[in-house]
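Try it yourself: sequence plus iron/sulfur cluster, in.
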Amino acid sequence: MIAQILADKCNNCAQCVNVCPTFVLDDGPHVPVVARLDACQTCYMCELYCDQDAIYVAPDQFAVEPGADPLPHLGVIRRDHGWDRPGEAGHLDEYRKLGPLLGAGVEIAARRYQAQRRSV
Amino acid sequence: MSIGVTLQLETDVLIIGGGMAAGWAAIAAAQGGARVIIADKGYMGTSGVTAMGGPNHWWIGPDKARREEAIARQSEKAQGLGDPEWMARILDLTWRTLPSLAPHYPFGSDGAGGTYYSGVRGSEYMRAMRLAALEAGVTVLDHHPALELLRDDEGRVAGARGHALRARQDWEIRSHATILATGGNAFRSGLIGSHTNTGDGQLMAAEAGVALSGMEFGPSWSISPAWASTRTLPYTGAVYYDADGRELDIPPSRAAGHAHHRALGHAMLAGPVMADLSHAPEALRPILRHIQPFTPAPFERRGIDLFRDRFPVKLFGEGTIRGTGGLDLADDECRTSAPGLFAIGDAATRELVAGASSGGGAVNSAWALSSGRIAGTAAARESLARKGASAPVHGLGRIAIAPHQADRAIDAAAIHRAVDHEIHGYAHVFTRDEASYAASGERLAAIWGELSAHGRARGAALVSLRETAALVAGARWTIAAARGRKESRGLHQRADHPEATGPTHRQLVSGLDTIRINTQQAEFA
Ligand SMILES: Cc1cc2nc3c(=O)[nH]c(=O)nc-3n(C[C@H](O)[C@H](O)[C@H](O)COP(=O)(O)OP(=O)(O)OC[C@H]3O[C@@H](n4cnc5c(N)ncnc54)[C@H](O)[C@@H]3O)c2cc1C
Ligand code: SF4
Ligand code: SF4
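Structure, out:
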């Protein structure tokens, strides 16, 4: 669930209010206000769209988690996406491996299961 | 249901929902010369399961033999209920259409000097769809959930009413054609990206008299850490343990029927189940964050190394998203039986292309794209032919809008838990029989009765209460359809009828207060 909007980084552009799919946030005088936390689906979209890296979403989807240090995580999801460089080729070059890697995992599990059947 | 002034708009084509199906429909309708409005409950770009997923589209080049072979394989999976002609159409449309997103989506390399088109990352895909729709002249209204359809005095669906969450204002949009693209129903299981997927479109259409098909083909689940639903890429090779560190005997995910999920579900009823991902493919570790940048966050933010540390897991229900069911289609341009109303993507039945099995993994997104294009083109044509006509309209919504007894507070959270349990609870879903369906059906009917007698709300609270009603309606159709199909086939598995017994038939489920089942001989078997 969304845990913090860091006032010293936020410029109150309201982009997070715009893009939140479940309308968790309201406009606020200095920073947006978390108005409907129970609707938060922990999707990290507000982080992805915040170009000031001012939002931290805590990982638990079901419970509020106070106290974590957000600093090491701010902006990581945006950078991993290559979100600010949409036209730049390259950051989706690994994407084609998704299907084959899913399949490789399925194979690993199936082979292990077979081997265990044989050994009993 | 109005609070203050109602925003009034008029358009040729109204599209309700803003996922990939809506996007492709909007672009097609705009290209057909229509004025188009998209009204989404959330934000077109982030809401719905497309945005949080990474849809891999069914993707076969125009080689005749290869397409025929793919259709034959898919028909086998569909177990007598798929339509090869529809399959051929969506293969062709997907192949021709998806690359048109290139100005807005940075398609990656195919590793052999070409471009990789078939799989796209949801967040970038939906950002691109939004840009492409805006560029085509589409008006996008975010945070504008629809609440009910309008019908005119000629009997045509003529738009919708809803509520603008940010402006705190009701809206009414009159249209010559209306497309439901509201996605599937995840029954509030917590499945990634599905919070707004509550089956509202199915409820609205049912109030216009439209039936559903394929609703019996479920349930299914995806495995995730117990504290957050994620994509399933890293788990396919996992080993599972109980809380005492004993390895569990879990059949692999591609085992027949529900064997994999049944074993996991039963173990979870006994206590926590821990996953060990250290057997995942070596090549995945360094690139997971480049393929699915959201997937590592739930672990890193808890200081867990997902490929080394064991962690508790949970099954998140996938409802009709990876099930098959949805609004029945009356013709090959995605019209429903209600004049003026179309249905596409996960809001519609996928039985035509997925049959008794899940279309997740490739077919569903090809369907969402293609049904969107087909309906968008047809809706533009139909609406332009009707320009000028505007008979008086009335709203079709009943439940939560016009209760037949005194208002009473509704405990929505308890209803959501009950619905998710009836559909996805592993205590009973793996051993379903007549008595178990009957009991589920009775519990859900009681909830529906209470809601329709006493539920009433306005504004944003009405949006929530209509969601609750849609969840219950979807669950009732699911249970009634599963009870009606007295055999096991594909995703639909019963303990009292464990075999697939002919003749192959399609089944329609309809109605709200009283639910009816109709069977149809499948023409394509
Ligand atoms: C994790 C995951 C992975 C998947 N992977 C694949 C895959 O690899 N291949 C594949 O083929 N398929 C896959 N699927 C299925 C595929 O993603 C869907 O079939 C497809 O995205 C459906 O698109 P849609 O536009 O119909 O629905 P959605 O993208 O869910 O959009 C529905 C929209 O309707 C809006 N809405 C709902 N109610 C209302 C209302 N009352 N008023 C206004 N708007 C409303 C929602 O906010 C949402 O924006 C996957 C699904 C999941 C969950
Ligand atoms: S998007 Fe970021 S900078 Fe803009 S208001 Fe939200 S938190 Fe502040
Ligand atoms: S995590 Fe998702 S649902 Fe929660 S506030 Fe951010 S954008 Fe909204």
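One thing you can check immediately is this: Residues 104 and 128 of chain B are 5 Å apart (CA to CA).
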